[in-house]
Amino acid sequence: MNFSARMSFGRLRRYDRFVTAFEAEMIIGSERHAVVVGDISVGGALVRTVNPPLVGSEIWLRAVGLNMPAEVRWVRDGLCGVQFGEQVDPHAIVRDNAPDYQG
After folding, report:
1. Would the pTM of this model clear 0.90, i.e. be above it?
2. Which of 11, 23, 38, 86 is the most buried (most CB within 10 A)?
């Protein structure tokens, strides 16, 4: 990847991400799926799931301290990126869901 492409990609990421691995629930319509949140930021999250929804799907992501509508922005190899409907406090969510978190 050339420098120009890296710069463009970097601009897509507006918020710092907290790398984590906590269990959550993804709700798609009336279906509920256990997922793992791999990272989280003020504006979205990386979610690992065996049944990823389609890009553009509206979902709810729930965990301790998190009950947020989101839109699926990308899907690849059992991972999906979701953009939250509102900003969240990722530090508090990671602290509440990952007991070994030292932040």
Report:
1. no
2. 38
